[in-house]
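Let us work through a complete example step by step.
Step 1: write down the sequence.
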Amino acid sequence: MKATHKQVSKLYIFGTVARFGSFSKAADALELRKAAISQHISELERDIGVRLFNRSTRSMALTMEGEELLPHATAMIQAADAGFSAVEHARSALTGPLRITASQDFGGNLLPSVVARFTDRHPGVRVELVFDNAVMDLESDRIDVALQMGVKRRQGLVVRKIGRSEHCVCASPRTAAMLTSMQTPSDLAMCSAAIFTGFKHSDRWVFTRADEEQRVSLSVQAQANSVDAIKQWIAQRPLVAILPYAMVSREMRSGNLVQLLTDWQLPSVNIALAHRKTTDLPARVRAFIDFARTDLARQIERVTETVA
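Step 2: predict the structure and record it as tokens.
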């Protein structure tokens, strides 16, 4: 005989009644009416064709068949309890897998060091970094946390801002030496540009300085959805690019790239951590978000100080 899901539920009730030795006490423990408990036991007896309890107005005892069934009911209850305990432990303990995504261009520079410091504190967490320049779907791709630049609020996501990154006009030192006469953003019209297609309207920009404003359309010679590709192009060719400083700060500090028009400002972009909107985030995910918000904010602040 193969038990149905309804019979499994009744078996749980049978085991509870046998453990307490009382319909009333079992009803209290299961938060059911005593009459409902009695009905479930009667239905179970009818299903399997035997009496499980000898009942009178003053006493109740298991029949021989009830004694035979009880160890199986007890094992089922204990297995269910153990399963729920294991899930609860996994949810509350700082152990288990953690999948984090970011673009290779941005996250590749920041996340490995953040993850290393986090796992030093919590060695039981197994981190997988998923780098993809495309925006991933956190639900279908089983992503716990996303580090994103320019992230927009979307239904079902919680977005936690951790900083902002300024944009800058950059070029190789050789190209910059050729553009010493450049004084204002309008002078970019004489340059060829490589643009990052990850930005909306990436060929049109608004520059400001005090009360001045200049709108510029770039002359596009090359475009890519990879900042690394853009950086290689402008390092090798007489091209300029407009990129978030957070993505080129290393090259700026090393001198491989040079910032142009330093007295003009460009719009900045939000940097944020995103995760699914849920009331039961595992402890390891909550812990990483709390840690990363502080750790990454410090790094972004250092970059901001560098560009200033």
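Step 3: interpret the result. The mean pLDDT is 86.
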